[in-house]
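Re: the multi-chain job from yesterday

Posting the exact lines I submitted so nobody has to dig through the queue logs.
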Amino acid sequence: MRLFNSLTRKVEDYKPIKSGKTSIYTCGPTVYDHVHIGNLRTYVFEDTLRRVLKAGGYQVNHVMNITDIEDKIFARANETNQDFKTLTAKYEKIFFEDIAKTGIDLHESKLIRASEAITDMQELIRQIPNKYIVDDGIYFDIGNDKDYGRFVTLDRRHEHHRINNDEYDKEQVADFALWKAKKPSEPSWDFKIDGRNIEGRPGWHIECSAMSVKYLGQPFDIHTGGVDLMFPHHENEIAQSRAATGKKLANFFVHAEHLLVDGRKMSKSFGNFLTLENIEAKKFEPMALRLLFLQAHYRSQLNFAWESLSAAQAFLQRLRSWADLVLQPKLGHKRTASINYQSALKVIKHSLSEDLNTPKALSMLSLLTIDAEAYGVDVKKLKPLLAEIDDLIGLDLSKRKDITPEQKQLILQREEARTSKDWSKADQMRHQLKKQGIELNDTDLGPIWYRA
Ligand code: AMP
Ligand code: ZN
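And the result, structure tokens for all chains:
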């Protein structure tokens, strides 16, 4: 496997710390609102990376945080007059629904809410030597940190400027809050440190350092997120963790590029965002959105357009019709695929192992569907191929719903009627199937059913 490592800005051979195992940390959602489809693009990339590593034989140990303590959460909870827990529980639930619809598999992942890791964060803050306590909280002193400035150019004139916001941009390089002193409008926790109690709440960056190292060790293998997280979030995670233990945080940082709208990053703050609800309201499937994302390389920006989603939906339909060939009760076996499935799978796996080249892998899939239309399929070998493709890219092609045994029987009887030229009986059976939502296409491969 080769992956682009943001730490070295090069595509590198991926070598895990422990042979056969891979530890991955992912920055998860801030649950104050619906996630937008830009967020989903990054989660789909991360899911595909895990799938490919797992299919490549690695035992994947994945950890993701759920940010339920953050500036935007408290602002929204106060605006809407509700407890922050009520707000975050609602959007956490919607997040998991959206994730599942988009084929993202978190079943084997360890998910941790920030509010449940307060003591781990406090322990880490205690270990950081270059921190200082002032009225509004505890700050990380970047001035003493020679390593700070990996993802941003550090202007030393900023030394000892302080920033209290959870999010800020490149022009605001400054000491950042590890812990924020209590504000009347925010929940707070006790924090005994240096013989005092500083009631307050953690800053945003500390949660990922605390959780990743606790569950994956330090260093761990791969840290993922969208490119916007490189600074300040990942810069700060790296700095805190190194300061606390002297060790690097992770060997690889892999970042996904943005989903754009009209050339601009899709973002809540620009108001140019779409949610899965908007996609479904226009009768597109979340799986078509997943396919659209996979059609672009994760390190390229992708401009969202409804026409592209419509083309992805049509491509998904083609893939499904191909997958459904394994469910056809009477497929002509005289003709079979001209492409060797093992070679095709090799090409797909090779493409994915080259810095997750999903567009190339999909081109091979597209070729397979064209080949099937021209030459037919090898049903026995197609079944396991579909399962392997699902393991790699998660389109659920091997989980298609079959028709009932009675419906299959009807298709076979209709074929018999056609062979004995009993057209009216054959028509009657076709009509019977149609009433049940099953249409037939008489092709030279044999009758092919599809759901109307
Ligand atoms: P957030 O909830 O803002 O922390 O974002 C969750 C994930 O989505 C992070 O990995 C972000 O980097 C990523 N993200 C945010 N906006 C976009 C976008 N427009 N396109 C792709 N990924 C994004
Ligand atoms: Zn993070």
